[in-house]
Each structure stands twice: as structure tokens, then as C-alpha cells.
Amino acid sequence: MRRLLAILCLFAAIGLSAAHAVLPDEVMSDPAKEARARNLSRELRCMVCQNQSIDDSEAPLARDLRLLVRERIAAGDSDSQVIDFLVARYGEFVLLKPRFEPQTLLLWLVPPLVFLGGGLALWMNARRRPKATPQANASLTAQEEARLAALMSGEAPAEKS
Question: What are the CA-CA distances from residue 8 to residues 4, 14, 16, 17 (Å)?
């Protein structure tokens, strides 16, 4: 019984994670065009939520953008024409994955450069650190051996005055 409940919970969690904000009245009658619209919607940022695609967002502006995408597809625009139209209207920020262009070069190059810089700093720090070498003659003096023996036997060591 527990296994069945666990399996049902797993399927429910998977089903909920795949839920989208697209409403039934937005869906296009042509399945191929609807698939294009959904793919494009996953690439576009909700201007209200900013961390979600318009496909996942329930904000009214996201709905307007989804409808606009479907309108442009119904008018016969290609995927790149739809994206270009939205970028011209809302700017590059509308794209969840910015294009690789001169003005976004820094955005694309900073993360790998920081990663490489951090790796280089760690490597240089490891090289600079002195290697721990065990002492070859780590023997105790006669006085230290006597004190150790006294401590181990439970006697109070004789204090030197």
C-alpha cells in the first residue's frame, strides 16, 4: 500500500511540474503551429516575473505575449521573425537566452573567465603552499620522555623550578 501511495505521489509531482500557464482559449487549432508557439514561448521572458518563460507565467502580460506570439504565427511569420518582432518591441531582455552579439559579449564571456580565474587562483595557491614533510628525527628529549611517562602512568609530573 505504501509503495502504491509513493508511486502515485511521484506521478502527481511529475504531472504538476509539467503544468503550464497556457489557457485553453489560447491554444491554436493547428497542432504544428501550437507546438511552434509553445517552443517560442519557452524562449521568451515574462517581463513581470523576469525569471520565468511566458509559457510558465500566469501574469497578464505573459498571456498577452503568448497571444501575440500565436497571432504572429497565424499571420505566417517564421520563428525568427516572431523573435525579431518581439525583440524590436521589448528589447533583448525579452529573450531568456540572449543572443551572442557584440553588445552581449561580456554577458557570455564573464562566467567562463571567472571560472578559469578561480581555478588559476586555486592552482597558484596550492603551488605556493609549502609541502608538509614529516620530520625524520622526531625524537623526544630525555626530559620530555620522562614527563610523557609520568603523564601516562597517571602521576603528576615533577615540576622544574
Answer: 6, 10, 12, 14
Give the confidence band of 85 by pLDDT, cuts at 50, 70, 90: very high
DSSP string of 125-142? HHHHSPPP---TT-PPPH
Q: Is 96 exposed, middle or buried (0-12, 13-18, 19+ CB in 10 A)?
A: middle
Confirm if 69 and 78 have CB atoms less than 8 A apart.
no
* Cell numbers for 37: 508557439
Q: pLDDT tens digit string along 8-28?
A: 655 555 544 444 577 777 788
CA 129 to chain centre: 32
